[in-house]
ABC transporter ATP-binding protein
Amino acid sequence: MTQEFILETHGLTKQFRGFTAVDDVNLQVREGHIHALIGPNGAGKTTVFNLLTKFLSPTRGEIHYRGKSITRMKANEIARMGLVRSFQISAVFGHMTALENVRVALQRPIGTSFHFWKSERTLEPLNVRALELLDEVGLRDDADVLTVEMPYGRKRALEVATTLAMEPTLMLLDEPTQGMGAEDVDRIVELIRRVAKGRTVLMVEHNLSVVSRLCDRITVLARGAVLAEGDYATVSADPRVREAYMGSEAEAEEVGA
């Protein structure tokens, strides 16, 4: 595993009408790591994600990906470079099968992702790769199932498959286990661990049990600024982190677990 930083921010700041949502954040994500952004509600985690993936422009600061500044690049440009985001709310087409969803994602690099009228024969070459990706996320047997009929946890797994179709080197996962029961959480944890092999993952996650099981390094945000950083043992022992989570008794107990 290389120790090179695949993603870095320098003084990353975002202000909205005088309110500072992200305040001078210096983030370093090592290649091959699973890195988590955590913090209480309103800490600025999703805003950081939106800055990294160019849905927002920073007020100040720089973003570097593989040593190159992407601060002023567009979302589609950085996606083509391998920095791909999976959204907090499942973003798949309910009226299409699992196979068809992945196939649409595979069409995007060749510029035909919305050509739904193309014949099955024309799209056949993409099916082999689509089935491989479904197999990678444990959905091979659901290839012909309409997405609307799939349980929530499997829809999230399908979303990971469509993200993998973009051939990411860095996957940004936004609350991958939100709204899931324990069984689905366990399945997604194992899925992330599996697909992270050979890739880098940066994730926003509220479930600290998930973070403790998966992540090599954790950055804790509070009020838009970096509060603490390190492995789980380090950040969970930090009294500032405990204080930041005291608004939720359950989460406070998890931090101390």
